[in-house]
Amino acid sequence: MRLIIPMAGRGSRLRPHTLTTPKPLVPIAGKPIVQWLIEILSEGLEKPFDEISFVVGDLNDEVKQQLLDIAENNGSKGSIYYQDEPLGPAHAIFCAKASIKGQCIVAFADTLFISDFSFDPKKEGIIWTQRVEDPSGFGVVKTNEKGIITQFVEKSPVFVSDQAIVGIYYFRDGERFADKLDYLIKNDIRDKGEFQITSVLDLMKEDGVRFSTAKIDEWLDCGNKEAIISTTERILATKPGSDVIESDAILIDSKIIHPCFIGKGAVIKNSVVGPFVTVGQGSIIIKSVVEKSVIQNDARIKNVNLKNSMIGNHAEYKEKARKISLGDYSRFD
Predict the structure, then answer these.
(1) At 133, is the secondary structure helix, strand, or coil?
(2) Integer Cα distance of 244 and 258 in angstroms
(3) How does pLDDT run across 32-78, given as a tens digit for each residue?
(4) Which of 174, 45, 177 lies closest to 119 in space, CA to CA?
(5) CA–CA separation, 11 vs 23, rounded Å?
(6) pTM to 2 decimals?
(7) Are 313 and 296 in contact, with CB atoms under 8 Å apart?
(8) Any idea what DSSP says for residue 176?
(9) Residue 49, class by beta-carbon neighbours within 10 Å (0-12 exposed, 13-18 middle, 19+ buried)?
(10) DSSP 8-state secondary structure symbol assigned to residue 289
């Protein structure tokens, strides 16, 4: 089984946190988003992926090595492919054509999920979906009474179905999938100006491939700051091993309200941290209260009260302790 992860997007909705760190490498509960994705997908397999291919944009060598290390730590071969132009999701997958062989899973790296990921690899194709209230911003599918997909539609302003495609796909015959990708690109078949994966799925369906749907229990968005914080809360609450205080973290006169992840070398002094907080390695928190927040690596925080916040790598946020005289019936926000 091979895994293809397109991740060449710019992560503009998560700026400024993606100006120096690609969105799939933003940490949630001590691990990059893409690592969580790989681990969750691996839960449904009998053995590790044979190969994990990352389709990236312009990344530096350190980031590329980090991705290869994540694959290796999963027991898989890692490969890097490049999408030089943002021509759409199907084009991004096409860039990894050399690795699309045999049984393949394609998973986009901007969402996580909570679900039992077991599936039947004998099926020709599986598309993971979830019902949503407003499907206009998603690719959707229509199915017959047997659960076989009859139609793929990409972000229709007119209601077609509420079964949204979550960005995870299984193909039993990778070569057949690669051939249709190749046909799409060579014949310049675009939808809304881009090469869409729903167009490839339509070509395969017309060629006789039977796609069925699989449901996920909970879809976790990682697209913006609020979504990252919400996803961190759900991962800490549901994933075993995520509620961790690393052995070399230093706690001085502080209280940790679980669940939290406190990274290596972090220092927390005279503070209350938690619940649902990620503190990256080497970060220092002094005289502060932090709740439902993500503090990335080597950050410095002092004299602050944080909730539903995100602090980037090497960032500093300090407030001066105030001396005030607040009279009766006064209010200070």
Answers:
(1) coil
(2) 9
(3) 999 999 999 998 888 999 999 999 987 778 888 999 999 999 999 99
(4) 45
(5) 6
(6) 0.86
(7) yes
(8) H
(9) buried
(10) E
Structure confidence by residue, pLDDT tens digits, 186-197: 999 998 889 999
CATH homologous superfamily of 2-225: Spore Coat Polysaccharide Biosynthesis Protein SpsA; Chain A (3.90.550.10)
Q: Are strands 163-171 and 125-131 parallel, antiparallel or unpaired?
A: antiparallel
Q: Domain 243-318's class?
A: mainly beta
Q: Round to whole Å and give the CA distance between 172 and 231.
A: 31
Alpha carbons within 13 angstroms on the beta-carbon side of residue 76 total 24
Burial of 221 (0-12, 13-18, 19+ CB in 10 A): middle
Enter the tokens of residue 206.
């017309």
- Give 76's DSSP letter: S
- Other CB atoms within a 10 A radius of the CB of residue 168 amount to 23
Bridge-based pairing state of the strands 139-143 and 149-154: antiparallel
Indicate if 243-318 has the same CATH topology as 2-225.
no
Please confirm whether the linkage preceding 86 is cis (ω < 30° from 0): no
Edge to edge, the sheet with strand 244-245 lists 244-245, 260-262, 277-279, 293-295, 310-311
Task: Parse the chain into domains and list their residue ranges.
Answer: 2-225, 243-318
Three-state secondary-structure class, residue 219: strand
